């Protein structure tokens, strides 16, 4: 029993990814090869960037160290592009000669085509260090640490001109004996000690006596002998030093090895923080390369196999999959409708809902039109070729989430759903390395909704920032229409196919096996963006009478003949795209429809009564979170409440960070709560804008806020509101003068109302002579000058009204929320 528990705990995938200190067991040290010939093998790296560029634009250092003599070279660089590095290396090798081997890391500048051409041309064997194992290139890494410290100390004590003294710093390093060799780099390259500043001072103190000259032959012979002797001693010293280092390192090391085909976790640096690493995998050992290096393959990925040091690997312990699911209680807002399909072949044209207000001839005409497009109306999803959904997970590795457990009754429901989807071609059996669990959510009618939990897949999916339509703009287009039809596509997402890589990533696991979607399933990140892009292309060129928000398509017209023509054009586009329509959800020829939570049509836009009822029945909040929830629901209709900011102010004060979680419910809060519900229940009506008529803008300011309203004159010769605006002034803004506040109210309102009033002449009403300040703004008041220039874009006529006549804007300015549109 204990062994089973230990095995189960050890196979936890999350724990293996997080890791623990004992995971990084070191393998015995493999000493670097001892190179006897100077500059036969060199190590190269890039140091930097330093915090500030030098006056000459240098911020990096190209470093090079010789394996035999530890001779260092360094060149200051302005950038690390391959061409720049290539030129710097050419300058170095022009002095010391071209090496046989060169060791670098796997940086893109060292692996570029330019560099590979350079190695090939000069017969250089390019060696690449294993990723995330700096010890492979430890010689130059150690030098980088020393040189970096020298440069930083110079910058702190003197100036940022370190690139001018770089050679002097190298001189100091070359003159010091290397601890592993017992000789300085100068002695091993030149055969004698060089004369530096300290030697010059010593000669002045002791008196300099030049040595007698020697002929060239004797000098060359002595130099060769000295170099051979020095290099031999250095080699022996290095061998002894390596033995000591290995004995010290191997105290806590142990032999580790993997076989071809083993599953391993790889310690990889994070992209955002290269000095931080985490375990990723599992991956597969493809080949063993030497004593400590392994070629690791990445299954189900476009990444090429890479070489890793054994210290960056650990075994992966797999757990037998539990083929099961679990059932949760959920609400309709969490999981979208339309996921469950019962396989019925209904949905014919006879189920289309026609307006009861249509005349007999109009009903006959619309029936004939729908019948001519009868194949469109089907309960079976179509399959378009106009769009494909992709799932871009970058370099993320396959995620396989263990499935959940369910009852035998739920398993039977899952099997029925899978069979239906297989028959329809929605899914297919899968061998994908990806797998997400299934979640069963009970529907209000007792049925079970089949959903896939894609949260982990979504977390590694790159976002698609395709813009969604503004609901207010869509509603304003529909509001003026006399005839409106709404069309709902049959299980819209299922009509969009997935590309092949996305099919693998969409895989889900059940007790009946692993399957993957052929079409776009619900719950995927970027699914709305893909579908909106499809419908936008579908209705391209028809924007004057057709709009769509995802699969909710609306066609609007001012006359019946136009509406028939518009419907025919949209139906034809849908047919050409290979899509189908759900007949039962189609509303044809209506004068008012429910669209995006609103009642629109015949020049009006009203909130949906069902949601207003929900506000009216809302219980008294007891916590800050409950207050935020109520304000979130009520705020959805703030556009219909002229003084929403003023009414809700006591409630929004309860949500401040300084307030306790258990709210203190006062009489003022209850009054605001009751008044807000009553105001929303009074069914105020906001007029849709008519861009063929002039607009009127009124503004006002108070001590705490500013307000504005956009209005138009209706057929009843009364001005009806189109948009309400309110904004609470900040602490700094509240100390402005009255005139400045009034000016700011105008500037703020016109910027917010730019989509309505820009490019057309309109009237501006205010109860203060604020614009006099703007028209006379001088350069000594930058704020007023800036506002004056901002208003140059607008064409308006100014009307002064009394404060008593400016009730709406005045109310909006009193005790407003932070920036809001109501």
Automatic annotation (TrEMBL):
CDD domains referenced in this protein's UniProt entry, alphabetically: RNase_HI_RT_Ty3, RT_LTR
Integrase catalytic domain segment(s): 34-193
Uppermost EC category: hydrolase
Superkingdom of the organism of origin: Eukaryota
InterPro entries noted in UniProt: DNA/RNA_pol_sf (IPR043502), Integrase_cat-core (IPR001584), Integrase_p58-like_C (IPR054465), Retrovirus_Pol_polyprotein (IPR050951), Rev_trsase/Diguanyl_cyclase (IPR043128), RNaseH-like_sf (IPR012337), RNaseH_sf (IPR036397), RT_dom (IPR000477)
Keyword Nucleotidyltransferase: yes
Gene Ontology BP annotations: DNA integration
GO MF term set: nucleic acid binding; RNA-directed DNA polymerase activity; RNA-DNA hybrid ribonuclease activity
Protein name: ribonuclease H
Lineage of producing organism: Eukaryota, Metazoa, Chordata, Craniata, Vertebrata
């Amino acid at each position: 029993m204990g062994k089973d528990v230990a095995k189960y705990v050890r196979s936890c995938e999350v724990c293996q990814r997080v890791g623990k200190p004992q995971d990084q067991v070191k393998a015995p040290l493999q000493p670097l090869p001892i190179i006897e010939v100077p500059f036969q093998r060199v190590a190269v790296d890039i140091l930097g960037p330093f915090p500030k560029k030098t006056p000459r634009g240098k911020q990096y250092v190209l470093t090079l160290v010789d394996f035999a003599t530890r001779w260092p070279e360094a060149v200051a660089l302005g950038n690390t592009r391959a061409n720049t590095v290539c030129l710097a290396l050419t300058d170095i090798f022009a002095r010391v000669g071209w090496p046989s081997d060169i060791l670098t890391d796997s940086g893109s500048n060292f692996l570029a085509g330019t560099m590979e051409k350079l190695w090939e041309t000069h017969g250089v064997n390019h060696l690449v260090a294993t990723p995330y194992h700096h010890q492979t290139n430890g010689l130059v890494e150690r030098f980088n640490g020393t040189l970096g410290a020298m440069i930083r100390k110079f910058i702190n004590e003197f100036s940022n001109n370190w690139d001018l003294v770089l050679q002097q710093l190298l001189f100091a390093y070359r003159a010091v004996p290397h601890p592993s060799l017992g000789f300085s780099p100068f002695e091993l390259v030149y055969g004698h000690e060089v004369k530096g500043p300290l030697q010059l001072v010593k000669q002045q103190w002791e008196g300099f006596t030049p040595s007698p000259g020697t002929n060239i032959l004797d000098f060359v012979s002595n130099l060769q002998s000295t170099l051979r002797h020095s290099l031999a001693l250095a080699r022996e010293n290095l061998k002894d030093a390596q033995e000591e280092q290995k004995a010290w390192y191997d105290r806590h090391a142990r032999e580790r090895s993997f076989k071809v085909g083993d599953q391993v976790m790889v310690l990889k640096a994070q992209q955002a923080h290269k000095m931080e690493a985490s375990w990723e995998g599992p991956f597969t050992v493809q080949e063993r390369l030497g004593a400590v290096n392994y070629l690791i393959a990445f299954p189900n990925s476009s990444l090429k196999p890479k070489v890793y040091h054994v210290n960056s690997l650990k075994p992966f312990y797999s757990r037998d999959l539990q083929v099961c699911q679990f059932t949760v209680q959920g609400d309709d807002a969490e999981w979208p409708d339309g996921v469950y399909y019962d396989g019925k072949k209904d949905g014919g044209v006879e189920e289309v809902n026609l307006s009861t207000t249509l005349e007999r001839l109009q009903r006959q005409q619309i029936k004939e039109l729908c019948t001519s497009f009868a194949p469109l109306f089907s309960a079976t999803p179509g399959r378009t070729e106009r769009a494909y959904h992709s799932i871009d997970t970058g370099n993320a590795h396959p995620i396989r989430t263990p499935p959940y457990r369910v009852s035998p009754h739920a398993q039977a429901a899952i099997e029925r759903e899978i069979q239906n989807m297989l028959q329809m071609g929605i899914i297919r059996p899968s061998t994908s390395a990806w797998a997400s669990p299934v979640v069963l959510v009970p529907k209000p009618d007792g049925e079970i909704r089949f959903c896939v939990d894609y949260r982990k897949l979504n977390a590694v999916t790159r976002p698609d920032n395709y813009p969604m339509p503004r609901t207010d703009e869509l509603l304003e287009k529909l509001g003026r229409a006399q005839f409106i039809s709404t069309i709902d596509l049959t299980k819209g997402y299922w009509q969009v196919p997935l590309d092949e890589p996305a099919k693998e990533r969409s895989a889900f696991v059940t007790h009946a096996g692993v399957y993957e979607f052929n079409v776009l399933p619900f719950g995927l990140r970027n699914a709305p963006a893909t579908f909106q892009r499809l419908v936008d292309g579908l209705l391209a060129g028809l924007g004057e009478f057709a709009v769509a928000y995802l699969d909710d398509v609306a066609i609007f017209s001012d006359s019946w003949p136009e509406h028939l023509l518009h419907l025919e054009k949209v139906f034809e586009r849908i047919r050409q795209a290979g899509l189908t329509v759900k007949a039962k959800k189609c509303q044809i020829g209506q004068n008012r429809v429910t669209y995006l939570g609103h009642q629109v049509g015949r020049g009006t836009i009203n909130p949906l009564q069902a949601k207003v009822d929900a506000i009216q029945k809302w219980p008294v909040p007891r916590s800050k979170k409950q207050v935020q929830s109520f304000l979130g629901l009520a705020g959805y209709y703030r556009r219909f409440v002229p003084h929403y900011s003023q009414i809700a102010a006591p409630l929004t004060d309860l949500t401040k960070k300084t307030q306790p979680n258990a709210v203190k419910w006062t009489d003022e809060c209850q009054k605001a709560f009751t008044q807000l519900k009553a105001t929303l229940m009074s069914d105020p009506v906001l007029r849709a804008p008519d861009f063929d008529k002039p607009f009127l803008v009124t503004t006002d300011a108070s001590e705490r806020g500013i307000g504005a309203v956009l209005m138009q004159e209706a057929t009843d010769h009364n001005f009806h509101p189109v948009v309400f605006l309110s904004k609470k002034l900040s602490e700094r803004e509240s100390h402005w003068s009255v005139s400045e506040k009034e000016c700011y109210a105008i500037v703020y309102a016109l910027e917010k109302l730019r989509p309505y009033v820009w490019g057309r002449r309109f009237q501006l009403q205010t109860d203060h002579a604020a614009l006099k300040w703007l028209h006379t703004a001088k350069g000594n008041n930058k704020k007023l000058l800036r506002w004056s220039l901002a208003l140059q874009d607008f064409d308006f006529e100014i009307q002064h009204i009394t404060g008593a006549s400016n009730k709406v804007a005045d109310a909006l300015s009193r005790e407003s929320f932070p920036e809001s549109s109501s």
